[in-house]
Write a structure and sequence with these properties.
The complex is a heterodimer of chains A (113) and B (117).
Chain A (H helix, E strand, L loop, with lengths): L3 E4 L2 E5 L4 E7 L3 E9 L5 E6 L3 E5 L2 E6 L4 E6 L8 E9 L10 E2 L3 E6 L1
Parallel strand pairs in A: 2-11
Antiparallel strand pairs in A: 1-3, 3-8, 4-5, 4-9, 6-7, 7-8, 9-10, 9-11
Chain B lengths: L3 E4 L2 E4 L5 E7 L4 E9 L5 E8 L5 E2 L8 E7 L2 E6 L8 E9 L8 E2 L3 E5 L1
Parallel strand pairs in B: 2-11
Antiparallel strand pairs in B: 1-3, 3-8, 4-5, 4-9, 5-6, 7-8, 9-10, 9-11
Classes of the chains: A mainly beta (113), B mainly beta (117).
């Protein structure tokens, strides 16, 4: 099946710093999503971005589908940004419809005050 | 964004009993629902995919007779863990995808923490 690798696995930053999280995937995708998992386990949708660039406030994401990677940028980090960030993909099949997601192992981000 | 709920949020049961977990899409019709499992400090693993009115498709290694999935309507899917054992203790999370045009975005429920004693 499709492989998803996230880097770095852990990241510790001071408040106000910028960060870049990377997601590499091994095959063409029709779905790529970035999530933030809060301390209670809820997955919060950040971006649906199988290709292109999107921005939402201090967060932005870019997926270069032809090179099979995606980047999540967090600017001016705040302590509330701490948590685990997951990248998840589903491969592009010939059929239509949604398919289950394959998750990377996540990046554990700690923002220190 | 779309809202997905799960019930219960936390359940403790005795070994050998069965537990049912509900997943509902509150403000949209879910053409497809998914069930995932997450162990502590680990990533999420897809267990099964269900479409309304048809049998679920299970991932390799997931016992379909142990994890019964029913998707009776476009807003409700249930996961029943039958004859639960301590190794079934885990965090179970559902997701749902609707008719978003060309988008396949999934929205996740808050999860159910199952402890089998």
């Amino acid at each position: 099946g499709i492989q998803v690798e996230q880097s770095p696995p852990d990241l510790i930053l001071q408040e106000g710093a910028n960060s870049t999280l990377r997601c590499n995937f091994s095959d063409s995708v029709n779905n790529l999503q970035w999530f933030h998992q809060n301390p209670w386990g809820q997955l919060i949708n950040l971006f649906y971005i199988p290709s292109g660039t999107k921005q939402n406030g201090r967060l932005s994401a870019t997926t270069v589908a032809t090179e099979r990677y995606s980047l999540l940028y967090i600017s001016s980090s705040q302590t509330t940004d701490s948590g685990v960030y997951f990248c998840a993909v589903s491969p592009r099949y010939s059929g239509g419809g949604a398919d289950g997601l394959t998750f990377g192992k996540g990046t554990h981000l700690i923002i220190q005050p | 964004g779309a809202v997905v709920s799960q019930h219960p949020s936390r359940v403790i049961c005795k070994s050998g009993t069965s537990v049912k977990i509900e997943c509902r899409s509150l403000d949209f019709q879910a053409t497809t629902m998914f069930w995932y499992r997450q162990f502590p400090k680990k990533s999420l693993m897809l267990m099964a995919t269900s479409n309304e009115g048809s049998k679920a498709t299970y991932e390799q290694g997931v016992e379909k007779d142990k994890f019964l999935i029913n998707h009776a309507s476009l807003t409700l899917s249930t996961l029943t863990v039958t004859s639960a054992h301590p190794e079934d203790s885990s965090f179970y999370i559902c997701s749902a995808s609707g008719l978003w045009g060309s988008s396949y975005e999934q929205y996740f429920g808050p999860g159910t923490r199952l402890t089998v004693t």
